[in-house]
């Protein structure tokens, strides 16, 4: 039996002509088909036009030319684009194995050898420095265990090319290797160096590399762990990005040196300060010895500030600077396990906190979180509200957290109030979310919070059920009642949270016998005091699943019927993953 003739593949046949370069009608156009308003000639013209557009597009994209037929310059640009996604993994080196032509293009293109990472083997460094041909290079040595022979080989390779180093990274694990780096930087000039990253991954006393301005005139980014930043004011003023980890702060003079360094970073744009090793007994003592500087320095160009230190040191640093309100701020205080006190956010902020952190007075949305499995709390603030879908502008401007690994002490309502007092100057606050324990909700002075934030319109309380059986939902509604609670705060026409329109109670809230009556009375009093048709726009509550579905449906119907004239939308639903 004769095999059917294979149809030509238009994508593979190079001599295949387009069907409309001649007047021959293609078979599929000559076959009878459905009636149409276009004549055969019109259809032929339309298909010729479309085919001409495809040919023009193929010519524009060079799709008819194989990649190896491209000019070497264009092929190099394509391969550089492929390489740009995974510089650190060195997967682009596999391109050398494709063919001899690719090997030649890559080997003779200096741009391919501008980033040279190596790990205890200097072969790539040797090859890359030879093939980069005078262009600026980035050298990264990820691991050195103090091998003198390897360090000597590395320094010998880099020494002739120090004038074209753009960035340099070294990680060492011994004081001896740090000393070799110290001597190397002190004896070589690097006029093109823009970024320097040195990490001493050891508990030994740090070394201070001499980085005088005349040797590093273009240096703008430093990332140092275990190395001291030189105290030269002129050098500090040229830095734009500083990531500095202080491991050995033992005396008051060390704190004073750190404060003086931060005060001289007048042009810094990103600043990260951390301290790895600490002891609670010595922190307060060394800060007390450090004399505070006169006046504050405004870091006008600062876009991001992050501090991970003990609360006294953070407070000392904030007392000497002013952070622009547009900066992203993240403050983290890590408490040792044996610290006698509970972590507190107020301990890290100066008394005049809005002077050093003006963003505190501009927050419109905030979240207070009490950690469940740690001794700690966190405050997150935004200067713009999220959209309805939760994906709007998320300009994170303030994070302040204090965490300890000791779980022996239970968080109380004092923690919530401390976090709220840290935001007491946020008079523009409109949305507040609190994630805490039931005991924290029951003991917090909510009316004082409502009085401090009169523009609050959205309140979400997400609780974690404690072993204590407390009617926390009733307590919240009583605090919102203008005819109940502290007479000094609710006297006259004052209403707690007069602009509150959305109240969401998330978590295993308990429905008690008096909850509906207390809620209805509270909402009626608020509506009467405020002179509005409705007390709230939305009241949403999650309840415990162990009520049973029948009991839940009865309670839901009762809430909706009794509160429909007081609330625009009443939503009562079971806690997720409950039956």
Automatic annotation (TrEMBL):
Residues 64-116 form the F-box domain. It comes from Trametes coccinea (strain BRFM310). Pfam families: F-box-like (PF12937). This is F-box domain-containing protein. It comes from the Eukaryota. InterPro entries: F-box-like_dom_sf (IPR036047), F-box_dom (IPR001810), LRR_dom_sf (IPR032675). SUPFAM superfamilies: F-box domain.
């Amino acid at each position: 039996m004769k095999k059917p003739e294979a149809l030509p593949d238009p994508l593979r046949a190079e001599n295949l002509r387009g069907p409309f370069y001649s007047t021959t009608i293609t078979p599929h156009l000559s076959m009878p088909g459905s009636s149409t308003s276009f004549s055969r000639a019109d259809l032929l013209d339309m298909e010729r036009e479309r085919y001409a557009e495809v040919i023009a597009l193929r010519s524009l994209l060079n799709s008819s030319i194989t990649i190896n037929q491209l000019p070497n310059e264009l092929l190099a640009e394509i391969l550089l684009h492929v390489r740009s996604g995974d510089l650190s993994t060195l997967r682009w080196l596999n391109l050398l194995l494709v063919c001899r032509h690719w090997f030649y293009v890559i080997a003779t293109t200096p741009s391919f050898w501008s980033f040279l990472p190596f790990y205890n083997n200097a072969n790539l460094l040797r090859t890359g420095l030879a093939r980069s041909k005078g262009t600026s290079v980035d050298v990264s040595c990820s691991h050195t265990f103090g091998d003198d022979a390897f360090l000597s080989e590395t320094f010998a390779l880099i020494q002739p090319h120090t004038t074209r180093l753009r960035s340099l990274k070294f990680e060492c694990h011994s004081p001896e290797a740090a000393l070799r780096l110290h001597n190397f930087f002190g004896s070589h000039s690097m006029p093109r160096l823009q970024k320097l990253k040195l990490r001493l991954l050891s508990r030994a006393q740090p070394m201070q590399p001499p980085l005088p301005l005349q040797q590093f005139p273009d240096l703008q980014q430093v990332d140092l762990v275990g190395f001291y930043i030189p105290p030269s004011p002129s050098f500090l003023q040229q830095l734009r990005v500083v990531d500095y980890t202080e491991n050995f702060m033992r005396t008051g003079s060390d704190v004073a040196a750190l404060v003086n360094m931060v005060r001289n970073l007048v042009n810094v744009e990103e600043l990260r300060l951390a301290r790895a090793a600490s002891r609670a007994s010595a922190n307060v003592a060394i800060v007390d010895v450090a004399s505070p500087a006169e006046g504050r320095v405004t870091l006008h160009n600062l876009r991001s500030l992050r501090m991970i230190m003990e609360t006294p040191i953070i407070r000392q640093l904030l007392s000497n600077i002013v952070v622009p309100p547009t900066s992203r701020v993240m403050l983290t205080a890590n408490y040792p396990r044996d610290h006698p006190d509970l972590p507190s956010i107020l301990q890290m902020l100066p008394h005049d906190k809005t002077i050093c952190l003006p963003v505190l007075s501009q927050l419109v949305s905030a979240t207070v979180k009490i950690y469940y499995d740690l001794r700690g709390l966190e405050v997150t603030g935004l200067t713009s509200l999220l959209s309805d879908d939760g994906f709007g502008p998320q300009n994170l401007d303030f994070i302040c957290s204090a965490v300890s690994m000791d779980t022996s002490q239970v968080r109380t309502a004092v923690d919530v109030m401390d976090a709220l007092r840290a935001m007491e100057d946020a008079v523009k606050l409109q949305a507040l979310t609190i994630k805490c324990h039931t005991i924290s909700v029951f003991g917090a002075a909510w009316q004082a919070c409502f009085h401090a934030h009169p523009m609050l319109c959205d309140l979400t309380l997400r609780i974690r059920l404690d072993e204590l059986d407390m009617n926390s939902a009733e307590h919240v509604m009583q605090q919102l009642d203008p005819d109940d609670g502290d007479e000094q705060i609710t006297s006259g026409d004052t209403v707690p949270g007069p602009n509150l329109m959305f109240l969401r109670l998330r978590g295993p809230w308990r429905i008690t016998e008096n909850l509906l009556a207390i809620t209805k009375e509270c909402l009626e009093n608020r509506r009467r005091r405020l002179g509005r048709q409705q007390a709230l726009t939305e009241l949403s509550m999650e309840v415990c699943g162990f009520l049973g579905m029948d009991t839940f449906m009865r309670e839901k119907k009762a809430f909706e019927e009794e509160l429909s004239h007081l609330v625009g939308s009443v939503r009562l639903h079971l806690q997720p993953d409950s039956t």
